[in-house]
Specification:
It contains five helices and four strands. A hairpin with a 2-residue loop joins strand 3 and strand 4. It is mainly alpha-helical.
Length: 105
Amino acid sequence: MISKTPTAFAAAVYKAVTEVPEGKVATYAQIALMCGHRGAARAVGNALHVNPFFGTVPCHRVVNAQGRLAPDFAFGGIDAQRRLLEAEGVAVIDGIVDLDKYQYR
């Protein structure tokens, strides 16, 4: 059974992701750095994959270092992630977001 109580790391990830504003994206590595865990991009992805706060924690705003969407987006797949981003005004072309234009800084 998976606990609904996140670890301290996961809680830090969820908090960092809530700082990414609508219409912007962040990379997994960027979220790891925001949490003080440089190099923990994969762990960020794992935490987001089991995000118990979907709808409150906008995990759809997190993409890989090249701007690619998550092929295994846990909340409906890549098409759901694309739709959520496009609804916020983020252009997604061939599964990729232009980080120069949309990355949260």
